[in-house]
Amino acid sequence: MKLCMIGTGYVGLVSGVCFSDLGNDVICVDKDLNKIKNLKKGIIPIYEPGLDELVLKNFKNKRLKFSSNLKDSILKSDIIFICVGTPTKKNSSAADLSQVYNVAKEISTSINKFKIIITKSTVPVTTGDEIEKIFSKKVSKKLFSVVSNPEFLREGEAIRDFIYPDRIVIGTKDKRSNKILKNLYSPLISKGAKYINTSRRAAELIKYASNAFLATKITFINELSNLCEKIDVNIEDISIGMGLDKRIGSRFLRAGPAYGGSCFPKDTKAIVSTSDKFKTNLSVIKSVIKSNNNRSSLLLKRVFDILNNNIQNKRICFLGVTFKANTDDMRDSSCLSMIPSLVKKGAKINYFDPTGKKNVFNKIKNVTFSNDVKSAITKADLIIIHTEWNDFKSINFKKGVKNKNYKIFDMRNIYSAKKMKEQKIKYFAIGC
Ligand SMILES: NC(=O)c1ccc[n+]([C@@H]2O[C@H](COP(=O)([O-])OP(=O)(O)OC[C@H]3O[C@@H](n4cnc5c(N)ncnc54)[C@H](O)[C@@H]3O)[C@@H](O)[C@H]2O)c1
Ligand SMILES: O=c1ccn([C@@H]2O[C@H](COP(=O)(O)OP(=O)(O)O[C@H]3O[C@H](CO)[C@@H](O)[C@H](O)[C@H]3O)[C@@H](O)[C@H]2O)c(=O)[nH]1
């Protein structure tokens, strides 16, 4: 099949590369000329394990192409995936769909034969209806079909998630499009992915409902961890005990800092906005958003307690600044609010991140970047493990930290509290 991915962010790039690796001809298009220029040279704009090799392989065998010419790419393709951003609007919590509608308008002027137009971007329910209206103004109904096919990949695990998804959701009532798409996804279906054909509106909602449910699960365990801290119970025991119940499941029950990233914060807000629009009340999700917004203040309070409210001139080292491991994405990372708050209280921050993110806090005084773990921790009064990178899982703190009275606050519970106690390290974790 000839495919065109519009937008070379995480979704457009990863799914485009994977589709080409499955044997399709794929053109990845972006209006960002610099991105396309770099991609053609093999420079990948995101940190995603394994992506560079796949890009190189499929670019060399010519199944994968990069272009900034949208019109030409549309004309050459049978299936067009809209993969542009849907961030939160500046003045409300609704999704800003301007990128999606602009692209839809552009595509609608270049339809020369039957094409399937797919929203892979996360879009609120009824967006497909609006796109269909845009097309109907320019093109005969016989020449297009608008389908919702939400993407469920996670950053850092994107290739594996794309190739081995739990399910593929196709929202369309058009039998012809469904048949073509089932065939496109057949290599993944044969590897065990469940294929669901549903209505377009249902497909749009499945995506938001899934993200909101996962955010709820995390918030649930985060709140329980607050209780555990007061009653001498370890939250890890609770997660294991609950997770073994197959109806609950063990995943997304890791307590930690506020959830972040480019999806959960914006998508929980957007689904609430949709429910408001249709005059219903998603009160559980509203409360999840509120609890998550409050989480960083709660953890900062814990930091103050650990340092006996004596923050002035304390050297605090952050290990990891991205919103989770194996990505260089800083979008809605909880440390973006925590670090400036600590600096305001008089702390001196240094941080290390394996992705080498040197310039994140360069506008803030008293925040410096360290080149490696060793130099980051050596003079620290408090080490905060903010991101669960493998690089941080076997540090010899006893040898590495020169300051005798140092403390560790492990926000990801990657060390055993018991072993730390045995080594007489002043160790604090989440929910214990
Ligand atoms: N990031 C993820 O892991 C993930 C996972 C699943 C779903 N999603 C959803 O997928 C969508 C894309 O997310 P992302 O993180 O990949 O986005 P992104 O914002 O990182 O990238 C979007 C890209 O689209 C390009 N673009 C915008 N308008 C364009 C136009 N008119 N023509 C050509 N290119 C254009 C931009 O230049 C940019 O490179 C969002 O709706 C998001 O919610 C993201
Ligand atoms: O047990 C857990 C699991 C995750 N998180 C946090 O939750 C956030 C999101 O993590 P994750 O879901 O792994 O990353 P994303 O790449 O944002 O992926 C989510 O958002 C994508 C965009 O919509 C979806 O496609 C994915 O299915 C969905 O998992 C991060 O801050 C994690 O640290 C926890 O605190 N505890």
From TrEMBL:
Pathway: Nucleotide-sugar biosynthesis; UDP-alpha-D-glucuronate biosynthesis; UDP-alpha-D-glucuronate from UDP-alpha-D-glucose: step 1/1. Transmembrane segments: none annotated. The keyword Oxidoreductase applies. Keywords: NAD, Oxidoreductase. It catalyses: UDP-alpha-D-glucose + 2 NAD(+) + H2O = UDP-alpha-D-glucuronate + 2 NADH + 3 H(+). InterPro entries: 6-PGluconate_DH-like_C_sf, NAD(P)-bd_dom_sf, UDP-Glc/GDP-Man, UDP-Glc/GDP-Man_DH_C, UDP-Glc/GDP-Man_DH_C_sf, UDP-Glc/GDP-Man_DH_dimer, UDP-Glc/GDP-Man_DH_N, UDPglc_DH_bac. The keyword Nucleotidyltransferase does not apply. Residues 317-417 form the UDP-glucose/GDP-mannose dehydrogenase C-terminal domain. It comes from the Bacteria. NCBIfam families: NDP-sugDHase (TIGR03026). This is UDP-glucose 6-dehydrogenase.
